[in-house]
Amino acid sequence: MLKSARKKEKDPEGRMPLGEHLRELRNRLAKSVLAIVVVAVVAAFYYRDIIEVFKHPIQDAIGCKISFAELANKDSRQQCASITMSGLVGPFTLMVKVSLVSGLVLASPVWLYQLWAFLAPGLHKTEKKYALGFVAAGVPLFAAGGFFAYKVLPSAAKVLIEFTPGGVDNLLPLDELIDLVTRLVVVFGLSFELPLLLMMLNFGGVLSGRRMLGWWRGMIMSVTVFSAVATPTVDPFSMFLLAGPIIVLYFIAVGVALLNDRRKREANPDRLLSDDEAAPLDLTPQPLGDSEPLPPLSEQGAHHRAGYDDVT
After folding, report:
1. What residues contact 161, with CB distance under 8 A and at least 6 apart?
2. What angle is formed at CA 228 by the lines to CA 223 and CA 231, rounded to 5 degrees?
């Protein structure tokens, strides 16, 4: 059984030798991998239900509900796609992929905690507070971005399927569909983290709120262009469905940054001083605390005989 290396430490600052750090990292990684494997094994028994969650919106939007024989006689203006799989081992490969991804996502509370437990002892109290706040805000932001992607994809599929030439049957491999949905969820989720990244830079003293506000024109243009590239459609609705929330979150981040800058200025005791005025020095005497007792005279004589002076 793996034992945590930090149970033996007594340093209040969390310091330990390099060997203990490596042992602690090994233990944390082992626990994280074990949690992912266990969840992936459980998800393997329900992988059909998991696939149905991703397949159902697309199938309702563009899925063909008729046979291949009927497709040949259908109206060419009514485009649809048949979700297929190819190869004998294709279903098994898809099951393994879906199970591993589900294990990685569903076990994220475990491995995120292990990562936090490894890094937390090296952080100060204020840094821990900020880190927990950013993690707590980052998870729902990523989930909101993934939810938007999940809602945009059916309307995007309807637009994309219209580009199919007449008289051509559209076959949509299921593994490619799952990959497309996963990529869109990740892209939308990460894009919703942009305001949080700006706030982290502001709280770290790297970026001021006034400078962030000065970027608003370029930021709106950049977010709009990114949304047009990230969404796999040509309709403006899907583009603004992604760009709108990001722009709103950007201005919320600017407001929080401006308030944080104001709080820092008010907490600075030298804020009223001019640039060429020296800050006053605090010359109040401070207690020295308990002094270390000197060794007995016999030990001092022994040090002199050994060749050491009083300083060493």
Report:
1. 62, 79, 80, 81, 170
2. 110
Cα distance between residue 275 and residue 272, in whole Å: 10
- Domains of the chain, by residue range, sit at 22-64+79-267
Residue 272: what residue type? L
Residue with tokens 């030298």: 270
Q: Under a CB-based contact definition with an 8 Å cutoff, are residues 136 and 47 in contact?
A: no
110-166: per-residue pLDDT in tens? Answer: 887 887 777 777 667 776 777 777 777 888 888 888 888 888 788 778 877 877 777
Give the contacts of 192 (CB within 8 A, at least 6 positions apart). Answer: 141, 142, 144, 145, 148, 245, 246, 249
The answer to whether the CB of 159 falls within 8 A of the CB of 235 is yes
Q: How many CB atoms lie within 10 A of CB 281?
A: 6
Structure pTM? 0.65
